Amino acid sequence: xxxxxxxxxxxxxxxxxxxxxxxxxxxxxxxxxxxxxxxxxxxxxxxxxxxxxxxxxxxxxxxxxxxxxxxxxxxxxxxxxxxxxxxxxxxxxxxxxxxxxxxxxxxxxxxxxxxxxxxxxxxxxxxxxxxxxxxxxxxxxxxxxxxxxxxxxxxxxxxxxxxxxxxxxxxxxxxxxxxxxxxxxxxxxxxxxxxxxxxxxxxxxxxxxxxxxxxxxxxxxxxxxxxxxxxxxxxxxxxxxxxxxxxxxxxxxxxxxxxxxxxxxxxxxxxxxxxxxxxxxxxxxxxxxxxxxxxxxxxxxxxxxxxxxxxxxxxxxxxxxxxxxxxxxxxxxxxxxxxxxxxxxxxxxxx
Length: 351
Fold this sequence. Notes:
This protein is an alpha/beta fold and 351 residues long. The protein is 29% helix and 21% strand. The protein is built from ten helices and 17 strands. It has helices at 15-36, 38-43, 55-58, 69-75, 111-118, 137-147, 160-170, 179-192, 211-219, 334-343, and strands at 64-65, 90-94, 98-102, 125-128, 151-154, 174-177, 201-204, 223-230, 234-239, 251-253, 257-262, 276-282, 292-298, 300-301, 313-314, 325-327, 330-332. A nine-stranded mixed β-sheet has the order 5-4-6-7-8-9-10-15-14, sandwiched between helices. Strands 1-13-12-11 form a four-stranded mixed β-sheet, with no helix packed on it. The chain has a two-stranded antiparallel sheet with strand order 2-3. Strand 7, helix 9 and strand 8 form a beta-alpha-beta unit. Helix 5 (111-118) packs across helix 6 (137-147) and helix 7 crosses helix 8.
């Protein structure tokens, strides 16, 4: 149930009420993880789920590091013992390779809430420029949009002239993709003299949404907001009408996750406001990760968002705690470069 401004009543809960509900759900999630995941059954064998009755208790549990997934999944395919390999709707392969599942739950990656905050509603037509090839990004955005009743064009990245044609012919109202690709599409439309005036909303992720890009879109009368998400976890946090940090906003943590910030290389929490590694426990049936260390850096913002949503806010993506880098929305990891160097020694030094 929602009002005109909020996706549902969960977003405006009293923070104490939210915390009580999250901790109750957390204990159930720990029990679920132990029952479906061989890895967590072993890792948490001495833990009784009802004991996890506070954030302090959660902070004592071991981390599962994203950086370890490649080796873990190679040793115990497909998901490293962290999820069942059957009873899943879709199976994905992200660069690494890292394998991710999607469950049968509607909007399993929880993107509807983030897209609603951007302004997408029933009847909108969304040009989805995230990849549909092996990786989950395209599906993540599509499932959220269709949950809101919006139509989706499964465009994927590239083919700029076709993107321009789709906007003109279908009367596209919303864009989803990396922050810079929308600018490329709009400039191609200008070059061709194609009508792109139907486009009024953009939702971006998977790259740096710079102040210069924001200004470019504002100057064209476009409302473009961002989210922070990963292929393993779905949406972690999203921007609302309060805007970015510079405008007093920041990213609001999704209602379906518990976020902690820890000192990089450790499992120890940092004080609110200090930069550290983002650790997420999603309340998700298909992939019940517990204290999943993303390798991303961020920090908790004080206070509540002026948009009326009452959940924790974070600063957004602030870099990496490891040496992975993002290229066009996809991570390239040091071990991938090392493997290429091993297979092709004639290339010499690589970085």
